[in-house]
Amino acid sequence: MEINNHSFQNSWQKVLFPYFSYAFYFLGMGLISGSIVHMPLNPARYSLIMSIGIVLFVIASYLYEVKLNRRELSGTETVKFLLFSLFLSVGIGMMSGGIQHFDEEPAYASYLIPAGLVISLISFTVKHGIKPKLKEKLIAGVVILTLAFASWTYLQDLAKNPEVITHGHQEAEQHMD
Fold this sequence. Notes:
The protein has six helices and no strands. The longest helix has 34 residues. Helix 1 runs antiparallel to helix 2, helix 1 packs across helix 3 and helix 4 packs antiparallel against helix 5. It starts with a helix and ends with a helix. It is mainly α. Keywords: Membrane, Transmembrane, Transmembrane helix.
């Protein structure tokens, strides 16, 4: 089987480029969510990890939307798209990290999860150019703020009752011994 330049280009365009764009998108998200929740443990280390995650997520968002989906954006639209991709990644990272590590930092996570919900919804709508009418905005706003407040209230109560919360990484380490 001979691999020529044309075969490699086809493979790159059809398989490798879309895969790496997609993988970097989710790798960036994972790094962001992990670093947000672990930030209190080592701010310098997790700021660096979060920065790498943000760069991966924003670049992958751009590549996926502009290069793969062939979305045409002006300079201003590109900056807006990248900025709200960043906010979206941080918002989703706040929810994901808060959920995964609630048992380790319940008070911190109880703020991360509802704030991430609000930030990610706003960022999602702006990033994707969704322009709801006033009535739709009000309904969406009431729903998301109600969910955020209800989750914050519930998570605050849960954080105050540590006996309800299961164990985190430490439990897994004990079972490995």
